[in-house]
């Protein structure tokens, strides 16, 4: 049978429609499409896709089940390795992980592994009602700090091995960046809630409104009988550029803007938490978070949204698919362009003018690419006398984060590097016995799946540590 | 869910509640704050801790009804529950090495100033307190301040109670007459704190101010609570939730903080009116 050279298309909401709603952009495969796509997998011998997956999902095996219509069988294979299949199927950068290693990709487009994973997880969530089976308790208590992707993965893997796991979450809802950061149109919150519920069925306890480092310290967790702790506290405080005007009203960090819209539901018709919407918005930065912020601003009703990025399209760090979606929706990419000052309104005759202190524009300078830096990326260099003013009233800074200080400042003997990231060995073990860490708290801002991979590694290490104790 | 154990009206616009939150009560120190949500979909608001009882596992909050969320909170009664209560957040007020302290509180800020004054008193420091209110009806915590202060000055803007004038009047008099303080700690409206700093400047008395900017998570994630400090001629961005809420008053850019505090003023006014209408029609 001849191989179909291209992936089966993912049906999407039309750009002109989805730009005005918060419903999910991608609509998912039907059973027929999923089976047809699964049949593109040639079940090659050396399975390079599995090695590309940070949590080593047995990809050809689950695809083989899809081929024959055994979707629940496929789900069981995926959940053996991944605690959050419906999430990964949506937000993983498959193009740089499993799919880029696909043998089929040598000649044709690779198998749409991500789309199949998403299909399988959604099929299970829709069709299988019985609760996951709770394993026998092995009598060991483990505490997880943070309910983001690394924490939930670590919790799920340990619960499956029979550990008594409690996840401590500082915010009022479990999910970490999956609920405060990634928008509804890319990852519906109901899906995150469902994955958390599945973990609860496995026996995982989730304590919200507990911030470790403040409400309780890591030392107190040990006093309370926890024998190991995994720290997955995530990325920390947002970075700003250090240019004039960043404290004007209308300047947000991407973290704040997305948290207001996602976690606090400012996108609802009558929100309780305010957000500036409408008008003209500039998002500074080129990562996935910048795309999320730009597309959120558009959906909140902005008349114009710019991405301002100092390098060119080729260096843009966001996923290609996200960039394409953003472009289709009408986001205007101002490339090779860097802000130098944010301008604000100031009425010289009336210091009580309510418009005072609000953003009126952003002064930018054009850039060109110079010599490559140590990472091989060409360094952007300002073009003299090329500055111009972008007419905007909202600016969203999406230029990364610095690690949160709360845990390191209250945990004696916990080593951090000079950027404040927690230092771990290859097993995720920190400088403190029994304390493991992973995700953005260790690496700085990275992907959901790499955080999940770190949670998985730490779960195995914690299991080994407590089994031999 | 967190139970409201007691509720007391301190004046027509200020309410005190004790909330059952044993983990928070166990850790709470003067100067720290909590974040709460009244109900599902509610806004997260920061409130400074006005006291804590470790034995009963309760945390005292005192709030002024200024908007939609505080209005909703005020409609909750003893025995009812609030959705979320997180803390204690922020860095506690530094007390080390301070033997003579002047505590300057304004309005509902006195609710936060009081436990700090009490803490210094407990540690054996000499406490002078200056508390200011708009008028007699708004005076709160008078007895509590008396109990922990060596000297106390109660001021009202209209002279209807205590002395006539603002908090800077007795502060200026004391500093002029040569009174020495190791530290002035001031909590209240931004404009008041700004003037307290200016009053102290000629005398080189250290001033700690307690900042209360708009926050969301309160744990060092969103950056909404940022403020600018001028440190040795350099502008430095700090975050009130993890670096504060206490800051060196001489370094804080108050004008910027005041401007940022008004970011959502239209939204807030509208939301407040809607909420009031809701309760009126109920």
Describe, in short, the structure shown.
The complex is a heterodimer of chains A (469) and B (282). Chain A has 469 residues and is of the alpha/beta class.
- Taking strands numbered 1, 2, ... along the chain, how are they ordered across the largest sheet of chain B? 6-1-2-5-4-3-7
Which strand order spans the largest sheet of chain A, edge to edge or round the barrel?
Answer: 3-2-1-4-16
In angstroms, what separates the terminal alpha carbons of chain B?
A: 24 Å
Number of helical elements of chain A: 16
How would you describe the oligomerization state of the chains in this entry? heterodimer
Overall 3D geometry of chain A? globular
Strand content of chain B: 25-35%
Structural class of chain B: alpha/beta
Question: How big is the Rg of chain B?
Answer: 18 Å
Major sheet characteristics of chain B: 7 strands, antiparallel
Helix content of chain A: 25-40%
Distance between the termini of chain A: 55 Å
Most extensive protein-chain contact, per-chain counts: A-B, 44 and 44 residues
Number of strands of chain A: 16
Structure description:
The complex is a heterodimer of chains A (469) and B (282). Helices cover 32% and strands 16% of the residues of chain A. Chain A has 469 residues and is of the alpha/beta class. Chain A has three domains: 15-127, Orthogonal Bundle (Fumarate Reductase Iron-sulfur Protein, Chain B, domain 2); 141-236 and 402-468, FAD/NAD(P)-binding domain (3-Layer(bba) Sandwich), CATH 3.50.50; 240-399, 3-Layer(bba) Sandwich (FAD/NAD(P)-binding domain), CATH 3.50.50.60. Chain B has two domains: 2-89, Beta Barrel (Elongation Factor Tu (Ef-tu), domain 3), CATH 2.40.30.10; 93-209, Rossmann fold (3-Layer(aba) Sandwich), CATH 3.40.50.80. In chain B, the strands form three sheets. Chain B has a seven-stranded antiparallel sheet with strand order 6-1-2-5-4-3-7. In chain B, helix 3 (110-122) packs parallel to helix 4 (142-148) and helix 5 runs parallel beside helix 6 (190-200). Classes of the chains: A alpha/beta (469), B alpha/beta (282). Chain A binds chain B through residues 170-172, 180, 208-211, 214-216, 234-238, 240, 242, 246-250, 252-253, 255-256, 259-260, 263-265, 268, 270, 272-274, 276, 354, 356-357, 404-406, and chain B through 23-24, 27, 37, 41-44, 68-69, 83-89, 216-217, 219-224, 226-228, 237, 239, 242, 253, 256, 259-260, 262-268, 271, 274.
